[in-house]
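Researcher: Quick one. two chains, 639 residues in total.
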Amino acid sequence: MERDPPEGAEGDSATYRMAGSITIARAASTAREIAAEPDPLTIDLSAVRNMDTVGAWVVYRTVRDRKAKVVGANDQAKSLLEQVAEADHPARVRPEERGGFSRVLRELGEWVSEAGVTLLGLLGFFGATLIAFGNLIKRPKRFRINAVVQRFDTVGVRALGIIGLMSFLIGIVIAQQGSVQLEQFGAEIYTINLIGRITVRELGTLMTAIMVAGRSGSAFAAQIGTMKITEEIDAMRTIGVSPVEALVIPRLISAVVMMPLLAFWAMLTALIGGGIFVWLSLGIPPITYIQRLQEVIPITDLWIGLIKAPVFGFIIALAGCFQGMLVEGNSEEVGSRTTTAVVQSIFLVIVLDAVFAVFFSSIGWR
Amino acid sequence: MTGIPKDCDPVITVRGLRNAFGDQVIHDDLDVTVCRGEILGVVGGSGTGKSVLMRSIIGLQKPEAGEIEVLGENMIDRDEDEAKNIRRRWGILFQNGALFSTLTVAENVEVPIREYFPYIEQPLLDEIASYKIAMSGLPANAGPKYPSELSGGMIKRAGLARALALDPELLFLDEPTAGLDPIAAAGFDELIRSLQRKLDLTVFLITHDLDTLYAICDRVAVLADKKVIAVGTIPELLALDHPWIQEYFNGPRGRAAADTAEEHAETVGGIEG
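Model:
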């Protein structure tokens, strides 16, 4: 690897002498050394023992770009040089991208149009499920009771543990934080009002909805998305089974039926958690706690919590199934669609919750 | 019959391999040797464990017993650093290409190079990816495409380009022509043959395709009854009277492939003569 002084026979051309094995392992250093040599250049390969296509490429591109001469190549080197020359078709590595302001504009435009298309699509999907419901009512024999019952198990029964634990802890947290504040006014007894009204009216249902969105909404999107990729859904269509009837309706029904039950369970466990806290910390016995709850929680609070639940369940299942159906192409999309499904359903649930809050207050259910 | 040619320089040696999933024994006391510079075809009915054999050799499946040596190194229970040195010297084409779906074809080819040789600068890296893509018979415009935009044949070629990224000595191909139309399959056979000659590769090739066997394999190993029951050239195998081998090569498809191979040989002979 040394530069020879210019010799008479070669004019004033520099000679870069390669030796040993010129392979991919030495490609980076060889390329750097060649780049440092001045033109015109002669590359002497007579001492090369072993070469691979990357080594040949480094030599070839010097010949191509700098009109270097190659001397002393053995048969292996010659054949490799020919092969890489044959394969010299420059290819782009990434698709073309426009940078700067126009790209920002384009992305903004895409984002807006995508949001619009998604909203329209969700509406269309809602319509498709209504049609499927209508068909099922006309021909109730096609209703897949087994699929629905199986979903009841996965969406409802199996969620009891985690939702119960979560609500129990939330009940304790509300009681603890509430009592600290109310103590300052000597009004600890109102902790019970706080726990009762906030869990039954708002948090029981809302937290359950968020948990179901994370647990089941994501599962719906991932399951249907994977079936989309493996062409199971196309297969269903060709056999004549409607994917909306077979996959979407059972999930929608299970979420709609299970959400109020889970919400009620969440309210109960939150009340129990709060009750245990006030008993142990404030010394209010359970019997007093229960009596007081009966006095302070109007029955309309329970109705509000339970009316919202199936609506939230419907939104979660709809968003999950819709995003699953939108999956196309590769496995990465299953992941991104699942994320979108969860974000979308939680967002819609909270927006609807606000609408409900205003509505119920204005009809006098305070 | 598990005859090994006299002048064999073994690249892969498997001795007494045993693989089992629970109670189901896939391989029991399996022996096979791959010699340097040959294309060894591995055939066998569905479920005879062809892919499991390949996965054991490349270390994706830990065998219950047996010895596996690749390029002179023991493959069982080795630490990660040593294994990396061997992995650099082989390339693998999985059955469905196994291209990284979030990267373009060219970036897929660059992944192994980047992993082992991080000092190669980006422009040179891109050039290397370009010529590998061209060598695998893909058009230059396939470089910036994502795997989901490619046809089945192109995915196989892109997978081959990635397998060849590090200029390996040893190439594993898992059913390279499965799912290709006959023209694409013949083209792919030709590509493998020519690359094997040009780059001096040793090829371990799993296939169902009789045409591939006749066209490019030097020797064929037959997997049945949990072992390699025979290894040899196709004429050698035809001389055996194992029922599965006879049915495989002398069934209607086997004969058709043999006829095609014969015709091809005659045409070539006629031109040369």
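Chain B has two domains: 1-89+169-234, 99-167.
Researcher: Thanks, that's what I needed.
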